[in-house]
Amino acid sequence: MIRTAPIIRVEAADPGDEAARALLDALSRTLEALTGASGRASFDPDDVRGAGACFLLAHGPEGEALGCGGYRPLEPGVAEIKRMYAVPGSRGVGAALLVALERRARSDGYETVRLETRRVNSRAVAFYERSGYVRIAAYGRYIGRSDAACFGKSLQDG
């Protein structure tokens, strides 16, 4: 039997849309259970609405919302990826979202992307490492936080 990848459609959305809010709430619940904090304090929906920002939803073959993620300007040439989430069991959704975010960031003129996840979130850490992200020094609000794992990736290489 030949297995084919599911059809995943990734498109721009507003983080206030109903489907986006449901995914962001699911992410917050997941993070709360895993880390003790929902992550809501480090995300302002307006950050991914303005110029140089982006918010995406991933939809499955039946149109169901399966994942979300966005980026915001961090400093000149650098975007920060925020609120990446894929519904558990939705194979390929996280990778499709991350690739789409990187492409959009590159087209918006960014040279590098950064992100933070919690060290205890071993699935996310492994996902970003598999996706070509490398550990970097803590930045911004994560400086001095021993629970933070910060990553970066050059968008110059393709």
Per DSSP, the total helix count is: 3
Low-confidence stretches: none
Alpha carbon gyration radius: 15 Å
CATH homologous superfamily annotation: Gcn5-related N-acetyltransferase (GNAT)
Known CATH architecture: 3-Layer(aba) Sandwich
In terms of structural class, how would the helical and strand content be classed? alpha+beta
Query: Would you list the SSEs in sequence order as H and E?
Result: EHEEEHEHEE
**Count of discrete structural domains:** 1
How many strands, which pairing sense, and closed or not: the largest β-sheet?
Answer: 7 strands, mixed
Quick check: average pLDDT? Answer: 93
The coarse silhouette is globular
User: Strands of the biggest beta sheet: in what spatial order?
Assistant: 1-2-3-4-5-7-6
